[in-house]
Amino acid sequence: MEPIIRVTHLSKTYASGFRALKDIDLEIRRGEIFALLGPNGAGKTTLIGTICGIVTPSAGTILVDGRDVLREYRATRSLIGLVPQELTTEAFESVWDNVTFSRGLFGKPPDPAHLEKVLRDLSLWDRKDSKIVTLSGGMKRRLLIAKALAHEPQVLFLDEPTAGVDVELRRDMWALVRALRAGGVTIILTTHYIDEAEEMADRVGVINKGEIVLVEDKVELMRKLGRKQLTLHLAQPLERVPPALAAYRLELANRGSDLIYTYEERDRAGISALLNDLAAAGIRYRDLHTTQSSLEDIFVGLVSERR
Amino acid sequence: MNVYAILAIYRHEMERTRRTIMQSVISPVISTSLYFIVFGAAIGERIQQVEGVSYGAFIVPGLIMLSLLTQSISNASFAIYFPKFTGTIYELLSAPVSYFEVVLSYVGAAATKSILLGLIILATAGLFVPLRVEHPVWMLLFLVLTAATFSLFGFIIGVWADGFEKLQLIPLLFVTPLTFLGGSFYSIHMLPPFWRAVSLFNPVVYLVSGFRWSFYGLADVSVAVSLAMILVFLAASLAVVAWIFRTGYRLKT
Ligand SMILES: Nc1ncnc2c1ncn2[C@@H]1O[C@H](COP(=O)(O)OP(=O)(O)OP(=O)(O)O)[C@@H](O)[C@H]1O
Ligand SMILES: [Mg+2]
Q1: How many percent of chain A have pLDDT more than 70?
Q2: What pTM did the predictor assign?
């Protein structure tokens, strides 16, 4: 199936001469949740800006639903909803007027029932007549989401949607994003909370210094790069790893009382061999547990590698 | 044409006026009344008549033009500058609207406000002095064209400005002096020949003259010239706006 977004050879050089995006190629699949990760200043917001029409690309092409975002901006922008990173809102307008404005701006006929549903889903319905200045930060964040959903977009960009949002609300937002995806909406989100990407995303992209360094199916990524560790708490501390076990990647920790075995997901079969060899070598253990590296470890590894 | 968007922006802007009704409407009414008291009553005592029209009545078209110019510029420049300042412009830039629609709705709203204001001032003036409008259609034409032209001009200033000082700069440096020297309070025939000649370089003279003609049939310069001048400004403003949007100047990065 044709991807919903196809970015080819996209570059952006700001007026200052700074190259914020360098020859980016990226495809977003229909109906997926795509998490874009990257350190501060990596170019996430710039990339989103070029797709949405806020930043003019210096080179390259961007197609949304097969249409060029510059030449057929009306068609492409109608499909997109954008929740910006910054909390930029009107001040003295009411919540209701503001979402009504957003829907009209995107060329949709009035539909109070839809707007009511959106505000209810975001727990803003009882504040619909409030002036925006009177809302809390988290409420403003939700208002921005409501504005982006007012015109029933097929693609939703969430630029750090959960920054400054409390734990409970974060859960609600995740639920909302899943519900949208279930309704066929494609979601692209940026986040600094890796657990969020791990929890939500179907695929993960990592951008660093204006370059896409990785795009991968999340499960695949975790499987490929995800290291597992088996930790054995030994009955008696060891001075050094016995030569009979040299074939395994083993380390001693905790003054020799923990033996750590690091392995890739795919050679899990190695564990039983190791345990047999341990028994043969007369090494006994009191307890054992395994740990798996998170997306965060992978991410930090990737980004620092390229620094 | 994204008609819903044009309506949305237009309503949004008009709603802002309604929220600030005090400063949008009442303050110009008060300041106009003050002009009448100061100029009409105090100076009118001495001048009494200009070319057969009482001084109080003579200054009405000029006063309306004065407010029309300054309000059109400030309404439109503020309307587009403020979203840039607060960052809410992201929504406009990401919306499926053409530049033409953006200009039409912002400038349309700013012009509507200043036209309403002009009519309110006219009505206020009617309380102080006897008024007559000899050419009402022309009067409305001048009102609409001037409001539209200077709202466009204000829009350009709002796009150009990257700080509040710049937003005030052009109105303060050029527009206010030109309007005060533009024959609002006198006929340029009352000036010595040298200053009369200088005045002819002031575009506001043509606006005030044409507008006053539509009231009393009195003009400093011919009506055709007045009309031509305002159309020239309109065309120039449109050209600059078209250029701004072709280049994305100062709206997009
Ligand atoms: N208008 C601009 N002019 C010049 N440089 C800019 C401009 N906007 C952004 N940049 C630079 O481009 C780079 C990418 O910025 P961008 O906002 O896209 O990063 P980001 O990945 O969204 O970061 P964050 O996680 O902090 O939001 C940064 O180095 C930033 O300083
Ligand atoms: Mg960002």
Answers
A1: 95
A2: 0.84
Say whether pLDDT at B242 is over 80: yes
Residue A42 Cα to ligand 1 middle (Å): 7
Query: Nearest to residue B25, comparing CAs of B108, B146, B118?
Result: B118
ipTM confidence:
0.86
Strand, helix or coil for residue A19: strand
CA nearest neighbour of A27 among A9, A61, A46, A4: A4
Locate B182 and state its tokens: 């533009």
The answer to whether the CB of A70 falls within 8 A of the CB of A55 is no
Question: What tokens does B1 get?
Answer: 């044409």
For residues A34 and A182, membership in a common domain is answered with yes
Q: Which residues contact B232 (CB under 8 A, 6 or more apart)?
A: none
What's the total number of domains in chain B? 1
Asked if A260 and A230 count as a contact pair (C-beta separation under 8 A), the reply is yes
* pLDDT average, residue stretch B91-101: 92
Q: What's A248's domain CATH number?
A: 3.30.70
User: From the CB of residue B135, how many other CB atoms can be counted at a distance below 10 Å?
Assistant: 15
Strand B53-54 with B49-50, pairing: antiparallel
Domain ends where: A194, A223, A252? A223
Pocket of ligand 1 (CB under 6 A): A 14, 16, 18, 20, 38, 40-46, 85; B 253
B15 contacts A97? CB cut-off 8 A? yes
- In a domain? residue B253: no
Does B161 touch chain A if contact means CB atoms closer than 8 Å? no
Kindly state the tokens that stand for A303.
Answer: 């980004």
- Are B106 and B152 contacting, i.e. CB atoms less than 8 angstroms apart? no
Instruction: For residues B219 and A52, give the distance between their C-alpha atoms in angstroms, rounded to a whole number.
Output: 53
A210 and A243 inside one domain: no
pLDDT at B40 (0 to 100): 66
> Which chain A positions have a beta carbon within 8 Å of B87's beta carbon?
84, 86, 88
- Both A54 and A168 in a single domain? yes
For residue B190, is it within any domain? yes
Phi, psi torsion values for A129, nearest 5 degrees = -95, 0
Full domain range(s) for residue A145: 5-223
Q: Are A144 and A89 in contact (CB under 8 A)?
A: yes
Q: Which residue type occupies A121?
A: D
User: What is the 3 state secondary structure string of chain B?
Assistant: CCHHHHHHHHHHHHHHHHHCHHHHHHHHHHHHHHHHHHHHHHHHHHHCEECCEEHHHHHHHHHHHHHHHHHHHHHHHHHHHHHHHHCCHHHHHHCCCCHHHHHHHHHHHHHHHHHHHHHHHHHHHHHHCCCCCCCHHHHHHHHHHHHHHHHHHHHHHHHHCCCHHHHHHHHHHHHHHHHHCCCCCCCHHHCCHHHHHHHCCCHHHHHHHHHHHHHHCCCCCCHHHHHHHHHHHHHHHHHHHHHHHHHCCCCCC
**Inter-residue long-range contacts of A215-221, CB under 8 Å, 24+ positions, other chains counted:** A215/A26, A218/A35, A218/A295, A221/A295, A221/A298
Q: Would you state the pLDDT for residue B115?
A: 93
Residue A51 reports pLDDT greater than 70: yes
